[in-house]
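Data deposition worksheet. Section B asks for the primary sequence of the deposited chain exactly as it was used as input, without tags or linkers unless they were present during the calculation. Section C holds the resulting structure in token form. Section D is free text for depositor observations; keep each observation to a single sentence. Incomplete worksheets are returned to the depositor.
Section A, Depositor: J.P.
Section B:
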Amino acid sequence: MRRSIASLGGSLVKSRGFSTSSSPEKIVASVLFERLPVVIPKIDPIVYAFQEFSFRWRQQYRRRYPDELLDKSNARSLQRALDRRLYLLIYGNTHGSPNGKPVWHFPEKVYESEETLRKCAESALQSVLGDLSHTYFVGNAPMGHIAMESSENVTDSPSFKQFFFKSQVIATNKLKIGKCEDFVWVTKDELMEYFPEKAEFLSKMIIS
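Section C:
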């Protein structure tokens, strides 16, 4: 039986001294690390035909990119699907992994004694990248959070609250991903395939 997920409204952030002493549940800071689109998305042939006359003067100045640059097959490459946003997933052990086995997850870390929850998220991403020189965190507050409930049918399946912070790749087209067994860069649609039980929540959280 899959672990159930309850979506929570509002935010639970304090500027300093974020404490969990009043609750046995752990708090996990996860990072939605994205690479923004690099090229202009392809125009649907039907839409293009309909708008061809009015946009013709713009089309003559638009750079055309070969299909291989828009290839979505090499999931470990930051240079794939250049017309889409990509999100980093890593494979390995993480808090709440069913039976302690490695799973696909976002860069994340259990909150301990960091000054803020965002600092915890920064630490989680830094542990994967080595440094944060090519990253930009969007805002100080989480973009969303959910409550993961424990399951009686799964060993070592504690309940915890998961807070998501958005960060973006800047000024590079190559990153050294470490401290994990594997990693992938996935589009939003592909992301839903990795987390079908969270698809509705993620779809609402990731607007574009």
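Section D:
The CA atoms of residues 157 and 187 lie 28 Å apart.
Strands lie at 5-7, 26-35, 86-92, 103-105, 108-110, 135-137, 144-148, 160-169, 182-186.
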